[in-house]
Amino acid sequence: MTLEAAASWRRTVRGAVVFTNGVFDLLHPGHVDVLDRARREGAALIVGINSDASVKRLKGPERPIRTASERAVVLAALEAVDAVVLFEEDTPIELVRALEPDVIVKGGDYSPDTIVGADLVTARGGRVVVIPLVDGHSTTSTIEKLRG
Questions:
Q1: Number of helical (H) and strand (E) elements in the chain, helices listed first
Q2: Which of 22, 28, 45, 72 has the fewest CB atoms within 10 Å of its CB?
């Protein structure tokens, strides 16, 4: 979805809207666990994904492995995910402002004070949830393993 379409969709959702974001370059069990557990925090889950240009700025010139459209298709196919929206910036702050989620979720490599937009969510009475990571899964380690 575009930001405008996602904001419009969000207004139709009855119940708590949960938001998370990330690169989701090579989907792995850790990603699926965070997404499944995030979905349980509300009535709908919207996932923001970094654009290809944003990923290159954040992760380096060899990333992403999968294009934004490929990553979006894979995420949208997951039962836990209700909507996917792409963002061009390095952080999802504009998405959080526009979507006004009731809950913001990130994996355990974050803390509530390092989650972009957490302050906006809590200021409106929402919640911040940090999901413990599944050990042994990361896109970076998968790429390193494939390179031998």
A1: 7, 5
A2: 28
